[in-house]
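HUMAN:
Just now I want nothing more than another pair of eyes on a protein record. I would be glad if you read both lines and explained how they fit together. I have put the entry right below:
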Amino acid sequence: MSKIKEIKINNFSGGISDDPRESTASRFQLVKHFDCFSNPTRLTPYRSLETDTETSVSAIDLKQYIVKDFVYSSTSIKLYGLGKTSTGFTKIVQKADATSGMWTLPTSSEGNGAVQNGCFVEYKDYLWGFQGTTQVFKWGLLSGTPSITNTAGTVGTITSVAQGLIAKDDNLYLPYNNKLVRVSAAGTVTDAVLTLPTNFKITSICNFGNYLAIGCSPISSYNGVSKVYLWNLTSPDVQEVLDWGEGELRVLETIEGILVGITDRYLNNAAGAGRGSMIIQIYSGGIPQVVKEVFTQALTGKSIPLTKVVKNNRLFWSAKIMTNSAGTTYNEGIWSYGRKNVNYPFALSLDIIDENVNPNGIQAIGSAGNFFFITHSNDGSIDKTNDSAVYTFTSVYESQIFNLDEEDKDKTLLSLKVMFRKLVSGESLTAKYRVDGESSWTTIGTFSTADALSRTFMNIEATGLQFASGKEFEFRLESTGGLEITGIRAKFAVNDTPS
């Protein structure tokens, strides 16, 4: 005897699950290049990315400047990038329109000190950052004809920097090493307005209510516990110290009044004995809490970049997670944590992938409106969100592992139905599955018939063979051309006799 059971999924708001066998239909093992936040009852593909290294000189001229920091100006509505000259000195480039067109190389935009990527921020009609070993530079007026001031101020010897911000007191704060530099509205630079313990380096700062939250990791990477310091902007010492746990805190930001931190725990360090992870922690009082941990199966060869983007109620960052012990496959791209609104849970997703990235990975990200910019491959390559509705990249959904709450019984897949927004020409769906932990996916079939709203697969289309039997099933859906998935139904026959 057997009985019929069905799995139905039409909500994707739960994000990446903590465990692949967790019986929550709105969660999944992974999505790549799907937006599951804007409309939580559907998976909407993101546009593909396109190369963005063309200047007025040549189509690939920008690559030589290795641009790693981006500012979308509120004054001039231009996009600015911080790179370096052939001698390694500061070089600022710009785009008049972030969405399309070429980069240009403005005059008076080259510094006289080695570029310090990681801190590039707009304040009072100027762009600010560090260069050389002791210099604070500024470039502006952005609303006029900008030129660079190489030594707007001097600081101690620079060994590391982090992105600056404007705090609630309307001053600019620029982090380097274990110190904060204050820049006043008048442009006065004051070094070391706050100095933290010398065994830490500042990696990320953000506003947190009336405080500045300062994320720090050990100077000796991974050798110790990261900290977050809360400072009221005026006292000579901090007001609170938060133990952020083992590993290197790389990204810190406030989302809906909650501190969210991204920690790199042994992703690139043999001390993890092959058990590295990316950890998402939150804090809103009490002690920091781990809400997600994504494990790697091998060393990634790179740390999580310090760059971050905050928009649409979400925090975005980039990371590379190895998915096999050989280190040959991985999930890399722009991850996000947040939610659509208060009616949905906070969720983790791998939002954007870039199929043009080589194994050297992503070095930095930036944004201008809904356009993302990705510096990758360690050669100055930059990709941006396509300014046309182009969907050549493959968007991927990988379901939870389903045992229908009868883990000891054998099941046979009878049918798989995939629902989608009305198909248009050029869109395509590929459905796959695997049984009982198989290492590879079996293709069920593909579908691209215009005007259809669903497709029910009854067998393996290429062979006509019936679906396999087993105790656990997983599904993988691949979308190209912009096909938007709205739901999944899988029907099984469950053997009443445990096998």
